[in-house]
Amino acid sequence: MIALVTGGAGFIGSNLSDRLVADGHEVWCLDDLSTGAMQNIDHLTDSGSFHFRLGNVTDESLVGELVDRADVVYHLAAAVGVKLIVENPTHTIETNVRGSEVVLQAAAKKGKLVVMASTSEVYGKGVKIPYSEEDDLLLGPTTKARWGYACSKAIDEYLALAYARERELPVLIIRFFNTVGPRQTGRYGMVLPTFVRQGLAGEDITVYGSGEQRRCFGYVGEAVESVVRLVDRRDTWGQVYNVGSTHEISINELAELVCERTGGRSRIVHVPYEEAYAEGFEDLGRRVPDVSKLERAIGFRPTLSTAEIVDRVIADLGGDRP
Ligand code: UDP
């Protein structure tokens, strides 16, 4: 099979590309390197079955050419990371909505499967835990930029499902929950690579807010495994799936874990949200996925422990295990 991976030089995109190449597929990667990096895919460019094209997902003629060549499109190109989103809301909304429009239009011409990366952000600050696919979405006000990301990805989902319904386009929507692992950068606000870098450098580990907020961190390799299995089972097409871990941890506990595993030289400090983020930020207290639909479909769900994931991220960022 020939796969087009938009955002293929990014964190999840490059890990997915590794897997597709290893499985014997030919991969075309489209990335504008805005948040992705060549170093994520350098090792793949020698392989005869991986091809990189520098470009933006809103470029209709380039996307059209690449989609025509592919059997399946993995659409991962998007503006991500809470920090980036609250600092660049215009860029976020335009890239996410326009990019998906261009990809879906091109795919619809020849009925190519589009695997659309979405996010747990679409649940907003829903209070019914765990979040399951048919739950109502509870977004914050439009005056808070953070929710513009959630809303843009929700529009992407509506649009993909509209193409499925009206044009019989095969689509598969995957809501990634907090996903971590090798190659993720902390530059756009993601907590785990930030903490690990701080821990390895013996710097203060910066917990935002009270640190009582809770998340579940899933390993990227298991997220990719879920994607591959979902695509293989054709009865999943046309549906939405949560993909993530259900091991819950508070950010305070995560800070302690990272501090201990990186040698215990850091202090854990609390930073008020107003100092940590630009205006328009609002955090959410708890996020846990319901992955029963995923498990029923593919007989698999991410289970790697947070401690093991932390150790793998430490190894990736150059530290030795204590
Ligand atoms: N966070 C933190 N310190 C950091 C970066 C993030 O305490 O240096 C917090 C952030 O405020 C949030 C949690 O860690 O409560 C997860 O943040 P991330 O941006 O990784 O993902 P989110 O779940 O917010 O999409």
CATH architecture of the largest domain: 3-Layer(aba) Sandwich
| Strand and helix order | EHEHEHEHHEHEEHEEEHEEHEHHH
Silhouette: globular
Strands of the widest sheet, in order across it, are 3-2-1-4-5-6-11
CATH class of the largest domain: Alpha Beta
- In round numbers, the mean pLDDT is 95
Percentage beta strand = 15-25%
Structural class: alpha/beta
How far the N terminus sits from the C terminus, by CA atoms, comes to 43 Å
Number of H- or I-type helical stretches: 12
Count of folded domains: 2
Largest sheet, if any?
A: 7 strands, parallel
> What share of residues is helical?
40-55%
CATH topology of the largest domain: Rossmann fold
Q: What ligand species are in this complex?
A: uridine-5'-diphosphate
Oligomer designation: single chain
Compute the gyration radius: what is it?
Answer: 19 Å
Low-confidence stretches: none
Compute the number of strand runs: 13
Give an overview in words.
The protein is of the alpha/beta class. Helix content is 41%, strand content 17%. The protein has a seven-stranded parallel beta sheet with strand order 3-2-1-4-5-6-11, sandwiched between helices. Strands 7-10 form a two-stranded parallel ribbon. Helix 5 runs parallel beside helix 6 (146-167). The N and C termini lie far apart (43 Å). Residues 82, 178, 189-191, 194, 206-208, 213, 215, 251, 283 line the site of uridine-5'-diphosphate.
